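User: Can you fold this complex?
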Amino acid sequence: MSANAATDEVLIARIAQGDRLAMQVLYGRHHVRVFRFGLRLVRDEQVAEDLISEVFLDVWRQAGKFEGRSAVSTWLLAITRFKALSALRRRKDVELEDEAAQAIEDTSDDPEVAVQKKDTGQVLRKCLTALSQDHREIIDLVYYHEKSVEEVAEIVGIPENTVKTRLFYARKKLAELLKAAGVERGWP
Amino acid sequence: MMALSKKILEQEPGDIELLLPWHAAGTLSARDARRVEEALASDPDLARQYAVIREEYAETIDLNESLGAPSVRAIQNLFAAIDAEPAQEARTSFNLSARISSFFASLSPRALAWSAGVGAVALLLQAGVIGAVLIKDQSASYQTASLSASEHEVVAQAPPRVLVRFAADARMADITALLDTYQASIIGGAKGGMFRLQFGDKPVTEQEATNLLNRLQGEKIVSLAVATP
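Assistant: Here's the predicted assembly.
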């Protein structure tokens, strides 16, 4: 972002006045990360695309109520999470979720095959996709979206201490999956 | 019993251990980051775990980056939905007029009469001041609003606007780059798959508008471009 670029907060204030260009700029800045966060939760590209339209439409409608107590990106991810979970509830059946996951994630080798090929990075990525939704989202929020403990607590709606322990147990689960796939990393 | 408690205690992660992922991501406060650094320097087990975390961190980024980006359909749907929304200015003015009405409704008849009287006096004073300023400035020269010869070439009163249909495989990044290049903004969109774009904020000559349209039609990601009021 250049020094002259409007901050996200300024864009939100302009969107609250009905400024479409500000909406376009905010969308350009955040839509990819919002899409990826949503996609990791719903595991369906079409649903994730619908999701980002809904998220930014909410921003258009609610911009006047944004109080700036958190970063705009945190607000966007919180809306995305809420919409994604609603979409998942609408679909209800976990089986469908698993089918969709396989549909978008089966392009790589199985963990065991990848181990034979000595591609531990690929195994790790495969195991990251196999985590539960709670564990996937917390790992993504901390590692990819670079959210602090406080911000994750706000997005997920849980206490800060729970954020820390949930990530710890997500990592433990990941280690178990890796171990089952034949990868030992010396922890835990 | 004591042995069990000890085992549970050993399994419970420590405060610093819990902060390691945030340290890897660089999102800890300076104070916490310093605490973690000191612990890492003196605890080999913690340092080993930190190395594992850095690997997880890198692979999580790789995984997310491999997910790609949404198609242009998402922004088309968004602006179509925004088009269908009631205008925000209208909502604001409604609120303002509603507030003004409720304010006057809350005043008693006596207060209203006083307010009207004060308003009338204020209007008379304002008229006097304006009159005095006009008389004082009567000798000042003035200019007509007519245009110079070169300005006659400007045929439009508004900046050029074009209806554009983007190619089906156009990515959001390409569209944003095109909008940047042309200093254009989307002012309406996704009706029949067409976006209404405005170019710059100044009127242009007919020749410049034609050139703009030709350039647009030559863009790889533009499948149709038509001038529009």
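Residues 18 and 26 of chain A are 13 Å apart (CA to CA). Chain A is about 75% helix and 0% strand.
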